[in-house]
Fold this protein.
Amino acid sequence: MISPSYLKSGDKVGIVSTAKTVSYKEVEEGLEILKSWELDPIIGKNAFNVYGFFAGTDQERLEDLQAMLDDTSIKAIIFTRGGYGTVKIIDQLDFTNFQKKPKWLVGYSDITVLHSHVHNLNIETLHAVMLQGMPKAAPEALASLKNALFGTTLTYKIPKNKQNKQGEKTVEGILVGGNLSILYALNGSKSDIDTTDKILFFEDIDEYLYHLDRMLIALKRSNKLSNLKAILVGAMTDIKESTLEYGKTDYEIILEEVNDFDFPVYFDFPCGHQSDNQALILGREIRITPNDNYITVDFKNQNQLQSS
């Protein structure tokens, strides 16, 4: 995998809205945080447009992202927010110049569309808090984003959850994934990912328990779960019952659908739709080491993966 260059003081970062509408006021504090890191935010001309649910028409959102992908002075693109909309423009984007000079794409939730699509271009991306969420993000989440952007090696120590399907040995593999609903929606498309021998991360928000089961069965039936090294489960936020009780918890549903496989499953990774949304480098090789009380997740460092 190709690792985009890490940032340094004074670098320009593009600010783009590819999904739900957002106002300047909602991202103003986030812009100040980026400036405090000595970065220079460059806002897309259509970033605060409103077209019904969306931050501008498909064409306006497409133009902003395309311009930032092509601009070699922009060293990273940080998305304002998620929601829905990135999938509507993904097939019209031209990644030719981006592939020649990759830059970090930073976001989560709906931005999983880009994480998955760009993974197939053999380029790493950064699953992390977006601009709108920065003011309410936990200090650890902001620190992890800054560390990831500036090249500090990421290591996480996660308390053991009693629901874990615990492995006894260290596992290594390339990390892929993102929002489960988006991964489900991309299944079978050009943006779909190959999960063979990889470590799958997923998180989600505001889904019914039976929706969770349906999505996991879809991934299972398409062999996305067959040859994994491990699963990391992030925040499953506001997962809810329907009118009739489903009869199982989200933990139980996940464990049931992977019961046929022998890879480990680790719950409650601090990442997803919550304030403690810590950064993950998707496409990067990681090592998961279990312990009686916690698991350690280590990302391989820049020198091993940095592109020329």
